[in-house]
Amino acid sequence: MSIKTYSHFLVVFVLGLTSCNTMVWNQNRLNKKLKKKDIIEQSFVTSESTIHYYKGGEGPAVLLLHGFGADAQVTWHKTMRKLSKNYTVIAPDLLWFGQSNSSMTPNLESQVRAMIALMNTSNIDKFSIAGISYGGFVTMAMYYTIPKRIEKICLIDSPGVTYDIEEMKILCKENDVEDIADIFVVKEPEGVQKLMNLAFYKDKKIPKKILNQTYELYFSQHHKELTTLLRTLPAEQSRLLSIDIDTYPKSLVIWGIEDDVFPLKEGEKLAEHMGAEFFQIEKAGHAPNIEKFKIFQDKLESFLAD
After folding, report:
1. Which among 79, 52, 71, 53 is positioned nearest to 5, based on CA atoms?
2. CA separation (Å) from 243 to 18, 112, 143, 213, 236?
3. What whole-number distance in Å separates Cα of residue 27 and Cα of residue 212?
4. Residue 90: phi, psi to the nearest 5?
5. Mean pLDDT (10-residue bins), the chain, 306 residues
6. Which of 67, 153, 171, 272 lies most in the core, judged by the most C-beta atoms within 10 Å?
7. Burial class of residue 66 in the structure, from the number of CB atoms within 10 Å of its CB (0-12 exposed, 13-18 middle, 19+ buried)
């Protein structure tokens, strides 16, 4: 499930180590860049949830859904700025990630309810979705719930409804843990480094100070809810598969060939199941939208424009 991706922070690490909090400074810096493109940080509050999101641009609507451990800004800030030239872009923090929270039961169904409510309050009827890793699971669940409103689907390193749950056990064994949450629910600064090493094709050594700041800013909350999201995912996958879906909209599956979270064969299997185009990106791991941004972005834009 997509992981917090910080390769674009490397220069910041060097230049900002003397600041009080480099990660907060960088977060503010990225918000200013987004604002220059008229992509505005907003919040939507219901009786059950607070949804933090970014919205900007004009044209057909595209909903961008981040993965596990990440938030909208870190995952999509470059993509938002590029897409906003031709599309209305909405990029939310999913529930219990970033600055979003909820009193609802932590599961896929709650994520879908929140995202539908967000699109409704934005007066958007039809839209396309790009979802990476866990965001891809949410994407599929949204299509199964409101199929007539989804125009196109792009899944990035997310095996969706065809995921072989046995692969989760293999991943746990490879990382010497008993529970999948021990990998993705980071409970200490050192876990940030392990997560990044798993996510990227090339390991990136992060200074201890930055690890501490990153953990406090992005990973220190909602451990219980995030664990529940992971543990309930297999049952929810089975529920979705029980729904009779004959066809999918125009779809694209993008995969980093060196993905150590979800093997390449899972992407091939999903693409075949959906009748989707399958696009591989070399020398990229679980976050090709970061490691190979230009290749990823060009493919996404050509898919949306077609």
Report:
1. 71
2. 54, 16, 11, 43, 11
3. 15
4. -125, 120
5. 43 43 93 96 95 98 93 97 98 98 96 97 97 97 96 97 89 93 95 94 90 95 96 88 88 98 96 96 97 98 97
6. 67
7. buried
The fold for domain 7-305 equals Rossmann fold (3.40.50)
Distance between CA 296 and CA 275 in Å, rounded? 20
**Distance, CA of 111 to CA of 144 (rounded, Å):** 13
Q: How far apart are CA 179 and CA 177, in angstroms?
A: 6
Burial class (CB in 10 A: 0-12, 13-18, 19+), 223: middle
Instruction: Report pTM.
Output: 0.92
What type of residue sits at position 135? Answer: G
| Separation of alpha carbons 187 and 194, rounded Å | 12
3 vs 282: CA distance, rounded Å: 19
How many residues are recorded in the chain? 306
Per-residue tokens: 227: 């664990």
Contacts of residue 244, Cβ cutoff 8 Å, sequence gap at least 6: none
CB 221 within 8 A of CB 24: no
User: Hey, what's the torsion of the CAs at 67, 69, 73, 75, to 10 degrees?
Assistant: -50
Q: Quickly tell me which residue has 């918000």 as its tokens.
A: 31
Sign of the torsion formed by the C-alpha atoms of 280, 283, 284 and 285: positive
Q: Are the C-beta atoms of residues 6 and 74 closer than 8 Å to each other?
A: yes
